[in-house]
Amino acid sequence: MSRADQVTFLAAAWCLSYPDEQLVERVPLMRAALGEFAGALAAFAPVLDALESKDLMALQSVYVKEFDLGKRHALHLSYWTDGDTRRRGEVLGAFKKVYRGSDTLVDTRGELPDYLPMVLEYTATVDLNAGKELLQQYRPSLELIKFGLQRDDLAHSAILQAICNTLPGASPADEQAVMRMAGYGPPTESVGLDPYDPRLLPMKGA
Protein backbone atom coordinates (compact mmCIF):
# COMPACT_ATOMS: atom_id res chain seq x y z
CA MET A 1 0.00 0.00 0.00
CA SER A 2 1.24 3.43 -0.86
CA ARG A 3 1.98 6.17 1.61
CA ALA A 4 -0.79 8.18 -0.07
CA ASP A 5 -3.35 5.51 0.82
CA GLN A 6 -2.13 5.42 4.42
CA VAL A 7 -2.52 9.20 4.72
CA THR A 8 -5.97 9.03 3.11
CA PHE A 9 -7.15 6.40 5.58
CA LEU A 10 -5.93 8.26 8.65
CA ALA A 11 -7.27 11.63 7.51
CA ALA A 12 -10.60 9.99 6.69
CA ALA A 13 -10.71 8.32 10.10
CA TRP A 14 -10.29 11.68 11.79
CA CYS A 15 -12.67 13.63 9.52
CA LEU A 16 -15.44 11.06 9.95
CA SER A 17 -15.14 11.17 13.74
CA TYR A 18 -17.02 13.44 16.13
CA PRO A 19 -15.57 16.94 15.77
CA ASP A 20 -13.81 18.19 18.89
CA GLU A 21 -10.98 20.57 19.71
CA GLN A 22 -8.36 17.90 19.07
CA LEU A 23 -9.72 17.35 15.57
CA VAL A 24 -9.61 21.07 14.85
CA GLU A 25 -5.99 21.16 16.02
CA ARG A 26 -5.18 18.36 13.56
CA VAL A 27 -6.39 20.28 10.51
CA PRO A 28 -2.99 21.82 9.63
CA LEU A 29 -1.36 18.38 9.96
CA MET A 30 -3.95 16.83 7.64
CA ARG A 31 -3.56 19.63 5.10
CA ALA A 32 0.22 19.21 5.08
CA ALA A 33 0.12 15.41 4.81
CA LEU A 34 -2.56 15.31 2.11
CA GLY A 35 -0.84 18.13 0.25
CA GLU A 36 2.15 15.88 -0.39
CA PHE A 37 0.12 13.92 -2.94
CA ALA A 38 -1.38 15.38 -6.09
CA GLY A 39 -5.13 15.76 -5.83
CA ALA A 40 -5.43 14.14 -2.40
CA LEU A 41 -6.40 17.30 -0.53
CA ALA A 42 -9.35 18.18 -2.76
CA ALA A 43 -11.69 15.52 -1.33
CA PHE A 44 -11.01 16.66 2.23
CA ALA A 45 -10.86 20.43 1.72
CA PRO A 46 -14.57 21.22 2.33
CA VAL A 47 -14.59 19.34 5.66
CA LEU A 48 -11.25 20.83 6.72
CA ASP A 49 -12.43 24.32 5.75
CA ALA A 50 -15.54 23.87 7.87
CA LEU A 51 -13.52 22.69 10.86
CA GLU A 52 -11.38 25.83 10.65
CA SER A 53 -14.13 28.36 9.95
CA LYS A 54 -17.35 27.23 11.64
CA ASP A 55 -18.43 27.23 15.26
CA LEU A 56 -17.42 23.95 16.89
CA MET A 57 -20.71 23.47 18.72
CA ALA A 58 -22.58 23.96 15.47
CA LEU A 59 -20.40 21.35 13.77
CA GLN A 60 -20.99 18.95 16.63
CA SER A 61 -24.76 19.46 16.40
CA VAL A 62 -24.75 18.72 12.68
CA TYR A 63 -22.56 15.65 13.19
CA VAL A 64 -24.87 14.20 15.82
CA LYS A 65 -27.90 14.83 13.62
CA GLU A 66 -26.37 13.31 10.49
CA PHE A 67 -24.33 10.42 11.89
CA ASP A 68 -25.62 9.51 15.35
CA LEU A 69 -29.39 10.05 15.52
CA GLY A 70 -30.45 8.21 12.38
CA LYS A 71 -29.47 5.37 10.07
CA ARG A 72 -29.19 7.35 6.82
CA HIS A 73 -25.41 7.69 7.18
CA ALA A 74 -24.63 4.93 9.68
CA LEU A 75 -20.86 4.51 9.98
CA HIS A 76 -21.01 0.91 11.18
CA LEU A 77 -20.03 -1.21 8.20
CA SER A 78 -21.96 -4.36 9.04
CA TYR A 79 -25.22 -2.45 9.50
CA TRP A 80 -25.44 -2.11 5.73
CA THR A 81 -24.90 -5.81 5.11
CA ASP A 82 -26.58 -7.44 8.10
CA GLY A 83 -28.88 -4.87 9.66
CA ASP A 84 -29.26 -5.45 13.39
CA THR A 85 -29.81 -9.19 13.06
CA ARG A 86 -28.55 -12.10 15.09
CA ARG A 87 -25.95 -12.79 12.41
CA ARG A 88 -24.45 -9.37 13.03
CA GLY A 89 -23.05 -10.54 16.36
CA GLU A 90 -20.95 -13.10 14.52
CA VAL A 91 -19.79 -10.45 12.07
CA LEU A 92 -18.72 -8.09 14.86
CA GLY A 93 -16.85 -10.99 16.42
CA ALA A 94 -14.96 -11.41 13.15
CA PHE A 95 -13.84 -7.78 13.29
CA LYS A 96 -12.56 -8.33 16.83
CA LYS A 97 -10.70 -11.43 15.69
CA VAL A 98 -8.90 -9.39 13.02
CA TYR A 99 -7.88 -6.81 15.61
CA ARG A 100 -6.64 -9.49 18.02
CA GLY A 101 -4.56 -11.01 15.25
CA SER A 102 -2.54 -7.85 14.83
CA ASP A 103 -0.52 -8.33 18.05
CA THR A 104 -1.51 -4.77 18.98
CA LEU A 105 -4.08 -3.80 21.57
CA VAL A 106 -6.86 -2.00 19.73
CA ASP A 107 -8.84 0.40 21.91
CA THR A 108 -12.42 0.41 20.61
CA ARG A 109 -13.26 3.41 22.85
CA GLY A 110 -16.68 1.96 23.52
CA GLU A 111 -17.56 1.72 19.82
CA LEU A 112 -18.60 -1.39 17.93
CA PRO A 113 -15.57 -2.87 16.14
CA ASP A 114 -17.03 -2.21 12.68
CA TYR A 115 -17.15 1.58 13.23
CA LEU A 116 -15.64 3.00 10.05
CA PRO A 117 -13.30 5.60 11.64
CA MET A 118 -11.87 2.83 13.82
CA VAL A 119 -11.37 0.48 10.86
CA LEU A 120 -9.67 3.27 8.93
CA GLU A 121 -7.36 4.20 11.80
CA TYR A 122 -6.50 0.52 12.31
CA THR A 123 -5.68 0.22 8.61
CA ALA A 124 -3.48 3.31 8.61
CA THR A 125 -1.58 2.72 11.84
CA VAL A 126 -1.69 -0.96 12.81
CA ASP A 127 -2.08 -3.45 9.97
CA LEU A 128 -2.34 -2.10 6.44
CA ASN A 129 -3.04 -5.41 4.75
CA ALA A 130 -5.63 -6.74 7.19
CA GLY A 131 -7.37 -3.39 7.37
CA LYS A 132 -7.55 -3.00 3.62
CA GLU A 133 -9.00 -6.50 3.35
CA LEU A 134 -11.78 -5.44 5.72
CA LEU A 135 -12.46 -2.33 3.67
CA GLN A 136 -12.56 -4.37 0.47
CA GLN A 137 -14.87 -6.93 2.07
CA TYR A 138 -17.24 -4.12 3.07
CA ARG A 139 -16.86 -2.10 -0.13
CA PRO A 140 -20.66 -2.21 -0.64
CA SER A 141 -21.13 -0.57 2.76
CA LEU A 142 -18.67 2.18 1.89
CA GLU A 143 -20.44 2.85 -1.40
CA LEU A 144 -23.88 2.95 0.23
CA ILE A 145 -22.69 5.38 2.90
CA LYS A 146 -21.20 7.52 0.13
CA PHE A 147 -24.44 7.60 -1.85
CA GLY A 148 -26.40 8.54 1.25
CA LEU A 149 -24.06 11.44 1.95
CA GLN A 150 -24.23 12.56 -1.67
CA ARG A 151 -28.03 12.47 -1.61
CA ASP A 152 -28.04 14.83 1.37
CA ASP A 153 -25.33 17.11 -0.06
CA LEU A 154 -22.87 16.40 2.77
CA ALA A 155 -19.21 17.16 2.13
CA HIS A 156 -18.09 13.90 3.72
CA SER A 157 -19.26 12.07 0.58
CA ALA A 158 -16.04 13.03 -1.21
CA ILE A 159 -14.04 11.47 1.63
CA LEU A 160 -15.92 8.19 1.19
CA GLN A 161 -15.16 8.34 -2.52
CA ALA A 162 -11.49 8.89 -1.72
CA ILE A 163 -11.54 5.75 0.43
CA CYS A 164 -13.22 3.76 -2.34
CA ASN A 165 -10.64 5.02 -4.83
CA THR A 166 -7.92 3.20 -2.90
CA LEU A 167 -9.70 -0.13 -3.47
CA PRO A 168 -9.72 -2.29 -6.61
CA GLY A 169 -12.39 -1.64 -9.22
CA ALA A 170 -14.54 1.33 -10.17
CA SER A 171 -17.37 2.57 -7.97
CA PRO A 172 -20.88 1.45 -8.98
CA ALA A 173 -23.17 4.05 -10.55
CA ASP A 174 -25.94 3.92 -7.92
CA GLU A 175 -27.28 2.00 -4.91
CA GLN A 176 -28.96 -0.65 -7.01
CA ALA A 177 -25.66 -1.31 -8.77
CA VAL A 178 -23.99 -1.67 -5.37
CA MET A 179 -26.47 -4.35 -4.37
CA ARG A 180 -25.92 -6.18 -7.66
CA MET A 181 -22.17 -5.94 -7.17
CA ALA A 182 -22.41 -7.33 -3.65
CA GLY A 183 -24.98 -9.97 -4.40
CA TYR A 184 -26.72 -9.45 -1.09
CA GLY A 185 -28.50 -7.10 1.26
CA PRO A 186 -29.13 -7.27 5.00
CA PRO A 187 -31.38 -10.16 6.08
CA THR A 188 -35.00 -9.32 6.80
CA GLU A 189 -34.95 -10.92 10.27
CA SER A 190 -34.30 -8.05 12.68
CA VAL A 191 -33.89 -7.81 16.44
CA GLY A 192 -33.63 -4.03 16.58
CA LEU A 193 -32.90 -1.60 13.78
CA ASP A 194 -34.70 -2.08 10.49
CA PRO A 195 -32.27 -3.70 8.05
CA TYR A 196 -31.31 -1.86 4.90
CA ASP A 197 -33.70 -2.47 2.02
CA PRO A 198 -32.68 -1.04 -1.37
CA ARG A 199 -36.37 -0.73 -2.32
CA LEU A 200 -36.87 1.75 0.50
CA LEU A 201 -34.13 4.25 -0.28
CA PRO A 202 -34.89 7.55 1.47
CA MET A 203 -35.66 10.46 -0.80
CA LYS A 204 -33.58 13.61 -0.49
CA GLY A 205 -34.91 15.79 2.28
CA ALA A 206 -36.93 12.96 3.83
UniProtKB/TrEMBL annotation:
<protein>
    <submittedName>
        <fullName>Nitrate reductase molybdenum cofactor assembly chaperone</fullName>
    </submittedName>
</protein>
<dbReference type="InterPro" id="IPR020945">
    <property type="entry name" value="DMSO/NO3_reduct_chaperone"/>
</dbReference>
<keyword id="KW-0534">Nitrate assimilation</keyword>
<dbReference type="Pfam" id="PF02613">
    <property type="entry name" value="Nitrate_red_del"/>
</dbReference>
<dbReference type="InterPro" id="IPR036411">
    <property type="entry name" value="TorD-like_sf"/>
</dbReference>
<dbReference type="InterPro" id="IPR003765">
    <property type="entry name" value="NO3_reductase_chaperone_NarJ"/>
</dbReference>
